[in-house]
Design brief:
Layout (H helix, E strand, L loop, with lengths): L46 H12 L6 H21 L6 H33 L1
The protein binds zinc ion (ZN).
The site of zinc ion (ZN) has 8 residues, from loops.
Length: 125
């Protein structure tokens, strides 16, 4: 990394050139506070996608999996819409995982409930 003004070598992450005093971040350095310090692995800025991801994972829980799975699908879709409007928020994978796991979880639990409660009723008639 070099100073854009005087070309002096800079320490990694330097905010200011030690040679000429130039502020470095103004020249296309890493984005200031709120940037993806994690390299975009965890989409902090795409809260719906991140929430969908965790709800999707937790949709394996009995009964809670139904509302959580449905919420995961809704939030996952919201996350994808947010991503389309603002590509830099990231979170595509998290949104898809949320939709996939949440949808499957909710359907699996609804199916199981139907089997448990509906089938015996049908059999007795
Ligand atoms: Zn400089």
């Amino acid at each position: 990394m070099q100073c854009p003004q005087c070309q002096a070598p800079l320490a990694a992450g330097a905010k200011r050139c030690s040679s000429c005093g130039q502020t470095i971040r103004a020249y296309g350095g890493p984005p200031p506070v709120g940037g993806d310090a994690t390299g975009g692995l965890i989409p902090y800025k795409n809260a719906p996608a991140l929430t969908a991801y965790y709800l999707g994972l937790f949709s394996i829980l009995p009964f809670l999996g139904i509302p959580m799975g449905i919420a995961a699908v809704v939030l996952g879709v919201m996350g994808l819409k947010k991503l389309r409007a603002e590509p830099r928020v990231k979170g595509k994978t998290h949104a898809y995982v949320g939709i996939g796991c949440g949808g499957l979880g909710a359907l699996a639990w609804i199916g199981l409930l139907l089997l448990i409660f509906i089938l015996p009723m049908l059999n007795t008639q």
